[in-house]
Every structure is written in structure tokens, then in C-alpha cells.
Amino acid sequence: MQAGCSQRGRPSMQYSQPITSSVRQALLQPVVVFSRCSSRNLCRCSATNTGSNSFAQRAQEFAGTAQQRLHDFVQEQELDRKAAAASKAAQEKLSTAYQETEQNVRRTYMKIESEHNLSAKVNQTRRWLSERARDIDQKYSMRRKVKTAADDMKRLVPVWQRQFKEFSSTQFGKASLTLAFVVLLFSGLLRQ
Fold first, then answer.
1. pLDDT digits (tens, 9 = 90+) for 23-72
2. How does pLDDT run across 80-90, given as a tens digit for each residue?
């Protein structure tokens, strides 16, 4: 463990190695070390443990110094600037890759379009399907039948719900629903 002096004369703790003993044991022992201060002069820092300082206060001080060290490390290593530069470089690469892919797809589409005249064939197929659908609808009145069936379903759903609720409240209904669930469970239909 290595401690440094702050400019106000209070000791500040800096750990250059991983802590091998528990934090509590380290905080209970007096610390006397020599380190460089910000003015580049050697100074002696001494921290003695008194009974008035509690473990919680020391833990708070340790957390504060650790947070300050993290902040100092981020500033020293210029992590914010490096992260922004990496993000900008990645964004530029993605943008370039997207533009190249878009151009390649456009060229391929234009080549296939000029060779096979796809858009005309797609439009012709779409028109034919539309005409066939109209012919079938006129011949069999499918739209009218589907609309009538949908209206009937909307009208009958509350009646079916009421009938199901009445059936499921009887003993025979409960037994039937339980048996149906067991059959579905063992038939494998619920697992597909």
C-alpha cells in the first residue's frame, strides 16, 4: 500500500498493488510512508487510527479516494477523448460500408433489370393477380360472404362466451375441460 499527501496535508491513499489483506485490517494499522507530493518534494504522511473513527467512516473515505483515483485515471489516460475518437472511427467505417453496400445493390438491381426487365414483369403479374381476384370475387361473391361471416362472428362471440362460462362452471364442464387439456398435453399439440 502506498499513500500520498494531498496539498492540504491530509493523507490520500493510492494502491499500486492489489490489496492482499482485508480492508479492515489495513485500516486498523497505522500507516507511515514516503511519497511524492504534487510539488514533487518528498513528504512524510502519517495516519494513526483512533477509537473515534469508525469502520464506516473509513470505508467512506476509502470509497471517496477510490472514486477520485478513478476520475484522475480517466483524465490522465484521456479515456473520454479516446472513446469519442473510437466511436467516430467506427461510425465512419459503418457509414462507408453501408454506402458501398447500397451502391453494389443498386448496380446489381440495375444490371438484372436491364437484362430481364423485371419491373415490367412484376407489374404484369400484379395486374393479372388483381384481375383474377376481381373475377373470383364477382363469380363467388367472396367479399360479401367474408363480410357477412365476420359480422356474424362479432355478433355471436358474446353469446358463445356466456355459454362457455356457464358450461365451465358445471361439474361435467370442469371434468370435460380438464380431460381435454390432458389429451392436448399428451398428444403433443401444445408443444408444436
1. 444 444 444 444 444 444 444 444 444 445 688 889 999 999 999 998 88
2. 788 888 999 99
Residue with cell 367472396: 142
Cβ neighbours for 13, distance < 8 A, ≥ 6 positions apart: 1, 2, 3, 4, 31, 62, 65
The continuous run of DSSP H or E covering 5 comes out as strand 2-5
The C-alpha cell 464506516 sits at 56
Say which residues have a Cβ less than 8 Å from residue 11's Cβ, sequence separation at least 6: 3, 4, 5, 31, 45, 46, 47
The three-state secondary structure class of 20 is coil
Distance (Å, whole) CA 71 – CA 81: 14
Q: Rounded mean pLDDT of 3-10?
A: 47
What pLDDT sits at residue 72? 85
Give, rounded to a whole angstrom, the gap between the first and last alpha carbons of the chain.
62
Q: Residue 58 burial by CB count (10 A; 0-12/13-18/19+): exposed, middle or buried?
A: middle
Which contacts qualify for 63-67: CB closer than 8 Å, 24 or more apart?
65/12, 65/13, 65/14
Q: Please list the residues that pair with 13 across neighbouring strands.
A: 3
Q: Which residue has the cell 446489381?
A: 108
* pTM: predicted TM-score of the whole model, two decimal places: 0.32
Q: What is the DSSP code (8-state) at residue 16?
A: S
Q: What is the pLDDT, as a whole number, of residue 77?
A: 80
Paired with 43 in beta bridges are: 35
